Amino acid sequence: MAVSGSKDFEPNVAEYVEEAFERCGLEFRTGYDAETARRSLNFLFADWANRGLNRWTIKQVSQSLASGISEYPVGTITATVGSSASLSVGETITGASSSVTASIITKPTSTTITLTVPSGIFTSGETVTGGTSGASTTVSSSPSLEDVQSTIDILSGVVRRSNSDLSVSRISRDDYLSLANKSTTGRPIQFYVDRQITPSVKVYPTPENNTDIFIYDRLVRIDDADAAVNTMQVPFRFYPCLAAGLAYYISLKKAPERIQILKGLYEEEFIRAAEEDRDKASLNLVPSYTFVSAVS
Predict the structure, then answer these.
(1) Which DSSP letter does residue 137 get?
(2) What are the structural domain ranges in the chain?
(3) Helix, strand, coil share (%) of the chain residues, nearest 5
């Protein structure tokens, strides 16, 4: 018998739901069945985020640092304005009607600027004024926070200067709070991730120029399960874990007699997937001879 020669099996939302219902001993029939299953699927993805099981969604970010700015969004916040020419990198802009403030990190084009996390929501069409330059322009629409809010966490980072990368260490909230002089300037060597709904990263020391680049790997959310025809943002090796998890979640609502067996299967599939979802690199152990004395 000849093999198929194809490797394109990729279930969509509807097929995962059908598989999960069958594992619960049920038939997928009504529109509400589809709605409740999609909701469970999105809750399942949140559980995976808490467990750290979506390393395939790691994205590398190159964040330009601005002199005097120590706090940056974990992701990108872009505002479209009438003109960015007269505004300065590093200065604070203030909305005339909303009184919202944010600092300018970069000016990618003549009509766009990237910002720190705003203190509120800029109003579409309002005038914003630079605190240093005094220049004014208008905001075309309120900047989206979706990219930043999709962040789960930062894994690691380096600061690049003159094509040379220096590793920066992550510190806790308490360690950052205990820093005596947070306004000290220099090449950043530490960072703290403030995991709010709109997360930000605080670097220390405060950047001393506009040329250093903070490069970091961030973990982001899996795309939501929306339409039934959508495929899922998971690699082939995680299909069994996804089907088992969805079946378990549905059993909590529709097949309580199968909860234990489906939960056990899901946890087994999860452990197998989690053990696979890791970095694989050689481990070299080098003995220290510091305290080894010579034998006479």
Answers:
(1) E
(2) 13-54+221-276, 57-68+147-220, 78-143
(3) 30, 25, 45
Residue written as token pair 């099996």: 9
Give residue for tokens 């703290």: 192
Q: How confident is the model over 221-243, as pLDDT tens digits?
A: 999 999 999 999 999 999 999 99
251-276 CB burial, b ≥16 within 10 A, e <16: beebbeebeeebbebbeebbeebbee
Residue 73 is encoded by which pair of tokens?
């969004």
Burial of 26 (0-12, 13-18, 19+ CB in 10 A): middle
Q: Are 154 and 214 in contact (CB under 8 A)?
A: no
- Could you read off the pLDDT of 67-120 as tens digits, one per residue? 999 999 999 999 999 999 999 999 999 999 999 999 999 999 999 999 999 999
Q: Say how far apart CA 263 and CA 61 lie, in whole Å.
A: 37
